[in-house]
Amino acid sequence: MKFEISRTLLDNTLQSVSRGLSNKTPLPILMGIQLIAKDNLLTFITTNKEISVRVILESSDDLDIIEDGSCVVPGKYFVDIVKRIEGEKVEVTLFDQTTIKILSKNSDFTLRAYEKNNFPNTNFDLNTQPIVLKSKELKQIVKQTSFACASTEERIILTSINLTIKDDQLTVIATDSFRLARRTSSISSDFNSKIQINIPCKSLEEFSKILNDYNEDVNVYISNNQVLFKVANLSFMSRLVEGTYPDTSSLIPNDFLLSIKLNREELISVVNRASLFIDSENISFVKFSLSKNSNNIEISSNSTEIGRVVENLKPIEVSENQDFQIAFSTKYLMDALKAFETQDVIMYFRGEIRPAIITSESNVELKQLLIPVRTF
Amino acid sequence: MKFEISRTLLDNTLQSVSRGLSNKTPLPILMGIQLIAKDNLLTFITTNKEISVRVILESSDDLDIIEDGSCVVPGKYFVDIVKRIEGEKVEVTLFDQTTIKILSKNSDFTLRAYEKNNFPNTNFDLNTQPIVLKSKELKQIVKQTSFACASTEERIILTSINLTIKDDQLTVIATDSFRLARRTSSISSDFNSKIQINIPCKSLEEFSKILNDYNEDVNVYISNNQVLFKVANLSFMSRLVEGTYPDTSSLIPNDFLLSIKLNREELISVVNRASLFIDSENISFVKFSLSKNSNNIEISSNSTEIGRVVENLKPIEVSENQDFQIAFSTKYLMDALKAFETQDVIMYFRGEIRPAIITSESNVELKQLLIPVRTF
Q1: Buried b (16+ CB within 10 A) or exposed e, A243-263
Q2: Mind telling me how many Å the CA of A263 is from chain B's nearest CA?
Q3: Can you give the pTM of this predicted structure?
Q4: pLDDT score, position A300
Q5: Distance separating alpha carbons of residues A16 and A230, to the nearest angstrom
Q6: Which candidate from B80, B108, B310 shows the least CB-CB separation from A276?
Q7: Contacts of A3 (CB under 8 A, 6+ apart)
Q8: Which domains does chain B have, with CATH numbers?
Q9: Where does the pLDDT of residue B376 fall: very low under 50, low under 70, confident under 90, or very high at 90 and above?
Q10: Residue B15: pLDDT above 80?
Q11: For an engineered disulfide with B274, which of A78, A345, B63, B286 has Cβ 3.0 to 4.6 Å away?
C-alpha cells in the first residue's frame, strides 16, 4: 500500500474518523485506523463498541494512490503525527505488512502496524429508506436536547436520546427524570408507521462534532439495532439502546396557571449570579417570587453560611399578577435557558411544586421541562 | 464603612489582590480580603503564609468613600460577585460589623463578614535602598527562568529562584539539578556589597501575573527574610527561602568542543514531533547526531513499542564538522528553547555526556544548561 496525499486533506479526514477510536480498550486493535487503498479509493475506518466511522476519499489532485493494499495504523500516533508534520504532501507506505512509513518534508516517521486481520468487520449499509435532515438543524437538535440526558447509568435508557418519527414530524426527547428537553422538526418521510429509536447520547454528541465540518444534508438510515448517518463521503454508524423509552407525552400539557415572558440574556445573567451561593453539596438554587401587588419578579438565592442575593427583574409580560413562588436548580435552569437562541423565553407554571415549562414564541418547537425544588 | 466605586476599578483591584488569597487553609481568615476605608484612602490587603498583597486607592471620580471603617470580606465570593454584576457603580456598605451589602444595578448581595480582629498584621515597609527594574524586564526574567525550578520539595532551596546583586549586575538562577536557567541584567544599584537572596518560585510567578496589568517601574526592597515589590499603588511582599543556594558559577564555562547555530522555530517543530515517542514512563528523548561527512544534523527519537522518527535539519552554522551524538529530554529541551524570543539559538557542547549550553547571539544575557541523557 502506498499513497501520496495533501496534508490538509489527511488531517481533516483523520479529525473525523478519530471520533470512532477507542481510548482505552481491552482490544488494542480498536485503537487503530483501518486504511484500505483499492480501485482509486482510499478508505479510513474506525470502530469501537458504540460507533463506527468511515470516510472514503477518491483519487484526485490531492490524493495519488500509488499501490493498493490495506493496514491498521495506530490511531492516536497517526493523528498526532499528521497534526505536527509540515509540508504540503504526505507519503504513506506500508512495508512488509508490519511497518508504516510516513514521509513529509524533512520528517521520516516509522510506525508499527497492528495485525490487520484482527480488525473487526464493519458494515456501513442499511437498506432502508433514509430521512433527510439539514446538517445545521441536526446539530441544533443535539445541542438543544443532549444536555438533559442522564449522565449516570442507573437507567441505561435515559442515557439515550429518544427519536420518534410519525407522519411528517420528528420528535426528539432527552430526560434524566429531573428535567426534560423536547424538540420537534418537520421532515419529509415516506414511513407509513411510527418509528421510535433510542440513540446513545454520546454517539449523537460525537456525530454532532463531526458535523461542524460539513454543510451537506444528512441521510439517516434506521434498522432494528443500528442507526447510520451519511453526509458527503462520511458514514457514521451507532448502535441503538434497547428498551422502551418512558412515555412522556402527558408531561407537557396545554393548560397553565401563570406565564411569564422574560428577556433570556437578562435572566441568564441573574441565574449566573444566583449560582454563586452553593450549599454544602455544591448545589445552588434560585427562587422566583411574584406578588399580586408588584409588577417586578424577585429572583433570589441564599446560603446560610455565605450570604444572599436578591434581584428584581422586570418581565416583558405576565399573564396575571398573583402571589406565587417557585424554585429551581440553577444548573438545570441555566442549561434550559442556554438551549434557546431566541431573545425572549416564556416560563409556564401550573403550581409551586409542579413541573414548569420553558419555551419561546419564536421557537415553539423547543420545550424544556423543569421539576421545581422545595428548598424555601 | 461605606464606599461607592467604579465596577471596573474594583474588579481590576480584586484581580491583583486576590493573588494573595489562600485557597485552602486551616485559617479561614486568610481566605478573606481586608478592606480599610480611612482618610480618603481605600486599602485592600490579602495575605497567606507565602505572600501578602496590598493595593491603596485614593478617592477620585471612580471612588467615593462615604464612611470610614474596616472589615474582612470573604475573598472568593467578593471577587466572583464583582466579576458577574452589571452596572457602572458598586456600593459597598458594612452593617453591624457583621454584614456586607454589595449593591449594583438590580443586584443586592449580602455577605457575612469574617471577624476582623483575626486578620494577621501585615507590614509593607522595608526601609532599605530599592533596586529599580522595568516591569517588562522583570516579567521576562521570570518567564525565562522559573520553569527550571524544582517542582518537588525534596530540596526546598531548589524551589526558589536565586537572585544575586553585585556591582551593577543582577544574576537570576533557577535549577532543579537536571537543567539550569541563568539570566543576567544590568541595573543601577547603590549597594556596596554583594546581595544574594532566594525567592520562592511560586511567589515570583504570582507577582509576574499581577505585572501584566502594570507598565510602571518596579521598586524591589530586600531585607533578611523578605522581599517587597512596589509598583504604582500595589505592594507585593514575599518571604524568602532560607539556606545557601548551590554554587553554580563553574557550571557555565567558556571553552567548548563544538557549537551549532540553529533556527529556533525550526528546532522547536522538530522537538515537538520527537516528543510523540514516549516511553513506558511517559518520557521522550531526542537525539542529535552529527557526522564528519555531512552538513546536516540528524535529529531522531524512538520508542521500541511505537516506532521512530528521523529528521534532517540544516544548521545555520557548525563550528567544526565531526562525529558527535548527544541526547536530551524533549521536555527540558523544549522549555529551554521556548525561554528565548530570538530567531536563532546556539548550542554549545563539551562532550557527549557533559552538560550543554543554549544561548543566542542576540540574547547572551540568557543561558540555558541541560544535562544530557544516555538513552542510545
Answers
A1: eebeeeeebbeeebebbbebe
A2: 14
A3: 0.92
A4: 95
A5: 13
A6: B80
A7: A37, A42, A63, A64, A65, A66, A67, A91, A92
A8: 2-118 (3.10.150.10), 131-239 (3.10.150.10), 258-370 (3.70.10.10)
A9: low
A10: yes
A11: B286
